[in-house]
Design brief:
This protein is an all-alpha fold. It is built from 16 helices and 2 strands. Helix 1 packs antiparallel against helix 2, helix 5 (135-143) crosses helix 9 (211-237) and helix 12 crosses helix 14. It is globular and about 70 Å long. The protein starts with a helix and ends in a 9-residue tail after the last helix. The relative contact order is 0.14.
Length: 395
């Protein structure tokens, strides 16, 4: 319903508004019309058991596609023009290269990969409580994506996505019942440590290793991650919780040390944040010229050079919420936030294990233009649909 209302706002602007870009407004009207149809289909599927399986499978397919295509690009197997962003500017990348994936933008790619990582981490933590026949197989299957997703996230060098992922992982830990928190730590320990080691090696090669050594690094990392996960699961199954806690804590501490040691220059640099703060101030002043109905689609792209108070790179506003305010005014911004709050409440009430994954997308959208990609709306709606209660037909 809300995406349809956003489409209607763009339609009203297109017919009667004083627009900066007719083409941008028309494109957004069509885009949100498509998103509204997609949301309606997800709503129908989300209330049926079989439909939920299709939605869950869609999340897995999308996540694996993002991860495999990105890591294949690092090894030279999947080449698109901007799957890896290469630069000589140390403020943009300490390694001289950042993984951008099929989205061709590192920060947006990292947000989606981080979402997939948190979704799989929740599933792995659940399977770590299993024992008996088939327990090892379930642990392997649920842990399979953790190492490659964490590696792709680290190779993106997206500090905003790293921070959002850490905040959401902490929220996931707090949401766990007391006896379940150790399971979450054990599920993530080995894959994250293996990912940090691989990140250090591949960043040292500027994300351009020879194909065979690159594949060997990734294969060895996956084997090490799964072996470590199985060892920690075995400790838990034998009731050796103190040993499992010690090993997982040491692994996570080593992971943090490796990442900080590898990317310290990137982590401590704050110049791009200063540039964004100036951009946000300029955008807010521009939005106040038409605060209620906005300036139409892609307003900032076409007006940035006339309103900027200082030079900054790019013509995208690095905040999905500011972008919506500029385009559709406070009315559109209220609709957008209402949708996000509704999805968040659905997840909190009916699928709390998915809440951190959805929260990451919502948080990261505040500091980047993620939701200018239609796929972000689609993934967030998919997560919300997975949390819909199933309707049991009356006999």
């Amino acid at each position: 319903m809300i995406p349809l209302l956003l489409s209607v706002i763009y339609a009203v602007q297109f017919v009667w508004g004083n627009l900066i870009s007719l083409e941008g407004t028309f494109q957004n009207m069509i885009r949100f019309g498509f998103i509204s149809v997609f949301a309606a289909v997800c709503f129908v599927l989300g209330t049926k058991p079989l439909g939920k399986r299709w939605l869950a499978a869609s999340i897995q397919v999308a996540g694996w596609l993002l991860v495999i295509s990105g890591l294949s690009a690092v090894c030279g197997l999947f080449v698109l023009p901007y799957t890896i962003l290469r630069t000589d500017d140390p403020l943009i990348s300490f390694a001289g290269a950042r993984l951008s994936g099929v989205l061709e933008y590192p920060n947006a790619y990292a947000a989606l990969v981080g979402m997939f990582l948190l979704e799989r981490l929740a599933a792995a933590a659940s399977d770590f409580s299993s024992s008996g026949k088939g327990a090892r197989e379930r642990v392997i299957l649920s842990s399979l994506a953790l190492y490659p997703a964490a590696t792709a996230l680290l190779l993106s060098e997206s500090r905003g996505a790293w921070l959002a992922a850490c905040v959401c992982a902490a929220a996931m830990l707090l949401l766990q019942q007391r006896g379940q928190r150790l399971l979450l730590l054990c599920a993530g320990a080995a894959p994250l440590l293996a990912a940090a080691v691989t990140h250090r090696a591949l960043a040292g090669a500027s994300l351009a290793p020879a194909t065979i050594p690159g594949l060997l690094w990734l294969t060895g990392g996956e084997i090490a991650a799964l072996t470590g996960a199985l060892l920690l699961h075995a400790l838990l199954a034998r009731g050796r919780r103190v040993a499992a806690a010690a090993v997982s804590t040491a692994s996570l501490a080593s992971c943090a040390w490796l990442v900080i040691h590898t990317a310290s220059a990137r982590i401590t640099s704050g110049e791009t944040w200063v540039s964004r703060e100036v951009m946000w101030q300029d955008a807010a002043r521009f939005a106040l010229h038409s605060p209620w109905l906005g300036h139409g689609g892609e307003a900032w792209k076409h007006a940035v050079h006339t309103v900027q108070s200082a030079p900054y790179a790019g013509n995208e506003i690095h905040s999905a919420y500011l972008d919506m305010w500029l385009d559709t005014g406070l009315i559109g911004l209220l609709l957008m936030t209402s949708l996000f709050v509704y999805i968040g409440r659905l997840l909190r009430r009916h699928a709390p294990e998915l809440l951190p994954a959805g929260l990451l997308l919502i948080l990261h959208g505040g500091v980047d233009f993620d939701f200018s990609y239609t796929v972000f709306w689609m993934i967030l709606i998919l997560l919300g649909a997975l949390a819909l209660p199933v309707r049991i037909p009356r006999e």
